[in-house]
Automatic annotation (TrEMBL):
UniProt keywords, alphabetically: Signal
Protein name: Tetratricopeptide repeat protein
InterPro entries cross-referenced by the UniProt entry: TPR-like_helical_dom_sf (IPR011990)
Record's signal peptide: 1-18
Length: 285
């Protein structure tokens, strides 16, 4: 009579061990999935920051095809297309993200950014208009300022730029854009102040240095500003200042600045040499 009982106990033990094995396998599988998710997240971050933009586009394109509907991969593709300087394709990608059930207001802002990069200002404005005014982010107001600039709504542009400056700890780029807006309007003194503010926040921003020279030159101030610059930058800024002087028919000053630019550059400065030849030919003729 004992044999059946022992057999039953043995079978129950086997089933229990099998159940333990299956439970253990499931735990291992879940753990591996968690690790894969972490690894994938890290890889996504790398692709969005340090990877070659075109390589990132290929990565997110493949990943989205293999796992369609995942909004994080769709966003990764859209961002990578912007980095790869393919704004038209980025508009298509961001539009798909915005149409997704899990999209956010930030996705609309990124769509507006892509539209601006394609020079489609009207559609960008229409997208921004769908965002509640209470949703205040740095990028939203920076784009609003740019749209206002495109419409020559100067008071609105100034207001948006001012708000954007208050929403970031790195306002150099905003000040530079704001200064260029002032430059476009012919308000050269205000533009000079904005470019100076940009350089106070980022002394390496060469675009702001060049724009500052343009603003000063437009006021017939042909002295280089006191800002940090290396020898190549100094030559390039002298070249910009020279062209500004020539454009305003201050030819003698322009010639002197071109000569200084050529002498300052540590290598052959072809652009300045061409400008000097053109100036001399024009004067001769």
């Amino acid at each position: 009579m004992r044999h059946p009982i022992l057999l039953s106990v043995a079978l129950l033990g086997s089933f229990a061990l099998a159940a333990c094995d299956k439970s253990g396998d499931a735990q291992v599988e879940r753990a591996l999935q968690d690790v894969n998710v972490v690894d994938e997240t890290n890889l996504n971050d790398v692709m969005l920051t340090v990877a070659d933009p075109n390589e990132a586009v290929n990565y997110f394109s493949r990943a989205s095809t293999n796992d369609p509907g995942r909004i994080d991969l769709m966003r990764g593709l859209a961002k990578s297309l912007v980095r790869a300087r393919r704004p038209a394709d980025a508009v298509t990608a961001w539009s798909a993200v915005v149409d997704h059930d899990d999209s956010t207001l930030n996705d609309k802002i990124d769509l507006a950014d892509a539209l601006i990069r394609t020079n489609d200002w009207d559609k960008a404005e229409a997208v921004l208009d769908t965002i509640p005014p209470t949703y205040e982010t740095f990028k939203r107001y920076r784009l609003e300022a740019m749209v206002a600039d495109s419409n020559e709504e100067w008071a609105n542009a100034d207001s948006f730029y001012e708000t954007a400056v208050g929403l970031t700890t790195s306002p150099a780029g905003v000040y530079n854009n704001w200064g260029f807006s002032k430059l476009t309007r012919g308000d050269y003194a205000a533009a000079e102040r904005m470019f100076t503010a940009a350089l106070r926040n980022d002394s390496d921003l060469f675009t702001a240095k060049n724009n500052l020279v343009l603003a000063r030159g437009a006021q017939r101030n042909y002295d280089l500003p006191v800002v940090p610059m290396d020898q190549v930058e100094r030559a390039q800024l002298l070249h910009t200042l020279a062209l500004t002087a020539i454009k305003q028919n201050d030819l003698t000053i322009g010639r002197g600045l071109l000569k200084e630019a050529i002498d300052t550059h540590p290598q052959h400065f072809e652009a300045a040499v061409r400008a000097m030849r053109a100036l001399e030919d024009n004067v001769t003729n």
